[in-house]
Inverse folding.
């Protein structure tokens, strides 16, 4: 099976959204609703780029622009240098054969076997019988479903269905894979195995993946780059490591709230105050990482002094790097000193006061 | 029952099968594409043509709300044009077909609308042409529903065909009225009813079985 060569140049992204706005006419015909509002985003070749946001944030619309299932009201969508915005349906069909897509609810044809489902994009592209047979066998090997080739989707588990969906999306050897909440209908264990498969495909075939999700766990497990979308705008973007370790925007923090290293014990979260009180303490979150990948314990402890109490903490690995996050309570003046130091004490990526307790 | 009567029943059965078969075939050939069009031409759909959709919908509704016996006499000039005559079995096929087309169209529309729109989106994302989507997704996925629709059409046609005795169409219904009722031969009436029941049973169970065979969606408990 031919493998797509990807030029490593970050300067030449595979997909570029350039000032994209999409308006829908509102229900009842009263005015318009902007699903996307001036979105600009680049998807580097060979990377896994995740767009994360709550439902209704506009991420479904955004991903559908990349293969022309949606047309922007204004702005450009470049796929490998070609503007697909406003392209005719006939022109889009050519683009779509170079862009695979997997769906939250799999969207497999119930009337077709596993083999015939994976064969469908090849039939559509007019491939010959022998070519289809070879290609589908290779793909079923790749996703580990060779023994299910003559089964119908109704006989498969959710994870197996999504593997069929992935094999089908890869059938025409696309240069871009779009993943529309591919794991949102799956249990955590199946989610991990499907994500591992996507990561493996990204690594082995050099395939660029653009995915949308509302789950930070997905980002943590496979994304290289992340864009956070809220209310039709990109509110924060960066490497997965930076977004997870040192989120800046309120929406990102809200999406991270349940994650280890971000979650506060209920007893603390419930009585957090905005201003210090006499004799009270500050709740401080510090994040630390080293260039070698790990965290020096000394880096975390050194700035805190002896009066600090550990409330919560975790070590998280994102890609090949990891960071340690520690939530401590300490006298307010000390916390404010750390936060105000410029630069931050050695080894610290961020320090912030989350609030105060009595 | 005399051999003559038996022969009459056999002949009438043949006429019924002839009328029902041809009307179902031609009616489906016209009704299936019409139904697919009705299901796919709404606003924002595959072959979006909302005006044509509404117009054809109106015509279909009008045809379906016309009582069949009135349709038979109302279209006599058209029947004469197509069949060369307005009486006899061949002529009776014309109104039967005309009534079948909108009937099939609505049933096909309902079956096609049952197909998950996600599948159409997936096919579009693969670069499928609208005709490929109809052929490989809509018709293929709706096949169990289409089979049941065709079964229902055949059963209804068997009933309708009894009315075309009014234009000398022959068939079982005609036999039942002329011999069973007008000539006071209850045994002929009974025989006609029994043959009709058997016909409907055979068609219905064959259709159900075929639909089950095509249905790969799995039984939900």
């Amino acid at each position: 099976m031919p493998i797509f060569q990807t030029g490593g140049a970050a300067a030449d992204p595979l997909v570029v959204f350039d000032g994209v706005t999409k308006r829908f006419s509102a229900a009842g015909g009263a005015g318009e609703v902007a699903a996307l509002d001036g979105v600009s985003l680049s998807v580097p070749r060979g990377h896994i780029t995740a767009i994360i946001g709550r439902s209704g944030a506009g991420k479904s619309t955004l991903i559908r622009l990349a293969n022309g299932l949606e047309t922007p009201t204004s702005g450009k969508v470049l796929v490998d240098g070609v503007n697909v915005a406003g392209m005719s349906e006939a022109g889009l069909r050519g683009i779509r054969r170079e862009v695979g897509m997997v769906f939250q609810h799999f969207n497999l044809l119930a009337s077709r076997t596993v083999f015939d489902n994976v064969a469908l994009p090849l039939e559509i592209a007019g491939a010959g019988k022998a070519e289809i047979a070879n290609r589908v066998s290779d793909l079923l090997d790749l996703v580990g479903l060779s023994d299910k080739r003559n089964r119908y989707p109704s006989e498969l588990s959710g994870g197996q269905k999504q593997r069929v969906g992935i094999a089908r999306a890869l059938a025409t050897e696309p240069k871009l894979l779009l993943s529309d909440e591919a794991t949102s209908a799956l249990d955590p264990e199946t989610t991990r195995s499907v994500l591992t498969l996507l990561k493996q495909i990204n690594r082995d075939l050099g395939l660029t993946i653009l995915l949308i999700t509302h789950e930070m766990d997905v980002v943590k497990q496979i994304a290289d780059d992340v864009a956070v979308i809220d209310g039709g705008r990109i509110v924060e973007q960066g490497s997965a490591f930076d977004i997870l370790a040192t989120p800046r925007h309120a929406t990102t923090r809200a999406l991270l709230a349940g994650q280890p290293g971000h979650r506060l014990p209920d007893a603390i979260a419930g009585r957090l105050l905005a201003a210090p009180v006499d004799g009270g303490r500050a709740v401080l979150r510090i994040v630390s990482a080293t260039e070698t990948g790990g965290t020096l314990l000394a880096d975390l402890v050194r700035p805190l002094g002896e009066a600090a109490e550990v409330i919560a903490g975790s070590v998280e690995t994102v890609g090949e790097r990891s960071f340690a996050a520690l939530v401590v309570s300490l006298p307010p003046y000390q916390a404010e000193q750390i936060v105000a130091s410029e630069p931050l004490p050695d080894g610290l990526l961020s320090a912030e006061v989350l609030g105060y307790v009595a | 029952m005399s051999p003559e009567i038996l022969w009459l029943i056999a002949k009438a059965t043949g006429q019924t099968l002839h009328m029902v078969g041809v009307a179902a075939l031609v009616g489906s050939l016209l009704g299936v594409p019409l139904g697919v069009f009705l299901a796919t031409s709404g606003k924002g759909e595959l072959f979006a043509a909302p005006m044509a959709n509404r117009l054809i919908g109106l015509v279909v509704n009008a045809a379906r709300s016309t009582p069949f016996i009135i349709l038979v006499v109302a279209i006599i000039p058209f029947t004469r044009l197509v069949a060369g005559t307005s009486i006899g079995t061949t002529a009776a096929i014309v109104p039967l077909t005309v009534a079948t087309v909108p009937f099939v169209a609505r049933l096909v529309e309902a079956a096609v609308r049952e197909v998950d729109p996600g599948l159409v989106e997936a096919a579009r994302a693969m670069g499928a042409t609208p005709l490929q989507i109809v052929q490989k997704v809509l018709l293929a996925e709706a096949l169990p529903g289409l089979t049941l629709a065709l079964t229902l059409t055949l059963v209804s046609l068997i009933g309708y065909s009894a009315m075309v005795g009014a234009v000398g169409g022959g068939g079982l219904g005609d036999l039942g009225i002329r011999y069973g009722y007008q000539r006071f031969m209850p045994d002929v009436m009974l025989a006609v009813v029994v043959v009709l029941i058997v016909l409907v049973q055979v068609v219905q169970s064959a259709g159900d079985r075929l639909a089950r065979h095509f249905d790969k969606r799995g039984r939900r408990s």
